[in-house]
Write a structure and sequence with these properties.
Phosphatase 2c, domain 1; six-stranded antiparallel β-sheet; Beta-Lactamase; about 30% helix; Tumour Suppressor Smad4; alpha+beta
Length: about 575
């Protein structure tokens, strides 16, 4: 017995939900074959995408009797459907098409599967003659149940109500005593989501267990198990403990799969069951008899039930994505709010800085804060990893360091932070950091914890502050951090940065590097800090040429005002 209704031409009936990088959505109808997808519309694309990383001739959707087939048209990064790379793929309802890029487009294929199932069902019924179908009134009544069930797919009723009505219809058609909908979780374990009896009676989900033998057979065969009289069934079903204990005489087990998917096998496309969603299970203490019409209606009801579960999962995933996005937005706003804004005017120091996380939240941060009248502390830190975990550690470090007062000993604070992170190894994070304290007289006391050396612009020349290496905070419990001291000269400019600057990569995966940064800074000893910062960011952006970056970009610039310091003294 087939589980999939005959396919019909899909052109004009199928749509694409196009989700842009800014999360806006639009619906596009598939209006022809081939339906072309790519960057811009100058090459005749039916769906132009505004992302310079996507090729102009990227993909096509070709429609034929099988359905809608996605084709890769030579896109370098490759097309992905539901996270798997494909060359040719028979699209099913809910399939998600992506382009192997972070922060780019997502396209969700939507098929009018429900209407086509009804149309195919009516065609099948019209073609059945002389096969023991019941009286026309009974057959039309059963068809009406199917049409009612199909209409539920487009209703605004709660999900549990829709599923319950679907089970009620299946029970009415089969004259079963009980109907169950079993849903599979992520590991494939089945649980009873809903149980109904005759007349729409709601049954407890922890009631008598369904026949595990029938369920296993249906899952193994990937098709229906319909036993009209268990006295004539195979021995494994007859001897099943649940069947014997409940005196069952008829059992129906229908596995539910998402819309059929396709994979490339050789040069052709072969259909296969989609993701396993669960089963519809019906049983009765009386033997029964199913006509061909009954079986076809059960098939169609199974398609509708699978569509309901599949859509419910898509909706739930979208809700989870939106919740996560909302939480990330809150975390991003908090993190950005903790960064210094509107830098205060220090008598002996000019400062500016910027931070651009590569994801919603990042592991970089910088800070500038006074430590008394004549000293100012500043730092740049880079926590290992990305996302919320790294953001939490950056906030903890920022609180520990910004809480230092004029009497605090930075050596004690650094060593305490190192031991704290090492003692909580389950955190799984360490941090590279440069921390400095600049005095009015130009003395710079600094701590280097495995961070790239700041650069100094002195009289137009660019040099590194230090060359010796050191250990990050939170990596080695026995590490001891000590301070170094240098004296800044008039108008010296310090450039602090995270490795997201020097390790920015172009499309060929070449790195930006320190020499290129030094070249940008050369001769800029008397250029305003904001202009220097802009030059750095523009240089990195031009080098990357739109390639995805794997690290946050942080820059902090400070210029020692020696003239003001001298006048004050």
């Amino acid at each position: 017995m087939a589980n999939v209704m005959p396919n019909v031409e899909a052109v004009g009936e199928n749509t694409l939900d196009v989700i842009s990088p800014d999360h806006s959505r639009r619906v596009v109808h598939i209006t022809g074959s081939p339906f072309l997808i790519g960057r811009g519309d100058e090459t005749g694309n039916h769906l132009p995408l505004d992302d310079p990383r996507i090729s102009r001739q990227c993909a096509a959707i070709v429609s034929d009797a099988k359905g809608c087939i996605l084709e890769d048209r030579g896109y370098r990064r490759g097309l992905f459907v539901n996270g798997k790379k494909v060359d040719h793929y028979l699209l099913g309802h809910g399939d998600v098409i992506t382009f192997g890029l972070e922060g780019s487009y997502e396209i969700v294929f939507r098929a009018k599967a429900a209407e086509k199932s009804v149309e195919s069902m009516m065609t099948l019924i019209g073609g059945i003659t002389g096969t023991g179908i019941e009286a026309p009134s009974t057959g039309l009544g059963k068809l009406n149940l199917l049409l009612e069930a199909t209409s539920l797919l487009h209703s605004d009723l709660p999900l549990e109500s829709v599923i319950g009505t679907m089970l009620d219809h299946a029970i009415a058609i089969t004259q079963a005593d009980r109907g169950l909908l079993l849903e599979a979780d992520a590991s494939g374990t089945l649980r009873v989501r809903l149980a109904r009896g005759k007349g729409g009676v709601v049954l407890p989900t922890e009631g008598p267990a369904p026949s595990q033998t029938a369920l296993r057979q249906a899952m193994a065969k990937q098709s229906c198990v319909i036993t009209e009289d268990l006295s004539l069934a195979d021995q494994s079903l007859q001897a099943a403990q649940s069947i014997v204990s409940q005196s069952l005489r008829a059992v129906v087990a229908i596995p539910l799969y998402s819309v059929s998917r396709a994979g490339s096998v050789g040069s052709g496309i072969q259909s296969a069951p989609g993701q396993f969603l669960g089963l519809v299970y019906l049983d009765s203490r009386r033997p029964t008899a199913f006509s061909k019409l009954d079986r076809q209606i059960l098939d169609a009801l199974a398609v509708q039930a699978a569509s309901i579960l599949d859509n419910a999962r898509l909706v739930e995933r979208e809700r989870q994505r939106q919740r996560m996005e909302q939480e990330l937005n809150i975390a991003r706003d908090i993190q950005q709010a903790l960064l210094p804004r509107g830098f205060r005017d220090y008598p002996y120091l000019s400062v500016t800085g910027t931070n651009t996380p590569c994801h919603a939240v990042g592991g970089d941060y910088f800070d500038v804060f006074p430590m008394g009248e004549d000293r100012t502390a500043f730092l740049v830190a880079d926590v290992s990893g990305k996302g919320l975990g790294a953001a939490l550690v950056t906030t903890m470090l920022q609180g520990a360091l910004s809480g230092m007062t004029s009497g605090s000993d930075p050596v004690v604070v650094f060593n305490h932070m190192n031991r704290f992170l090492c003692e909580h190894a389950e955190v799984g994070r360490y941090a590279t950091m440069f921390f400095g304290i600049l005095s009015r007289d130009g003395q710079l006391v600094f701590f280097n914890a495995g961070h790239p050396s700041p650069l100094i612009i002195r009289e137009g020349k660019v040099m590194e502050l230090y060359t010796k290496g050191s250990l990050p905070v939170g990596l080695v419990p026995e590490a001891e951090f000590i301070a170094d001291t240098v004296n800044l000269q008039p108008s010296d400019t310090l450039i602090l940065f995270s490795d997201g600057v020097t390790e920015a990569a172009d499309p060929e995966e070449q790195l930006y590097g320190v020499p290129r940064l030094q070249e940008v800074l050369s001769g800029k000893h008397d250029v305003p800090l904001e202009e220097i910062q802009k030059s750095i960011l523009e240089s990195v952006q031009a080098f990357a040429r739109g390639a995805d970056q794997a690290d946050d970009i942080t820059v902090l610039l400070l210029r020692y005002r020696a003239a003001a310091a001298g006048a004050s003294s």
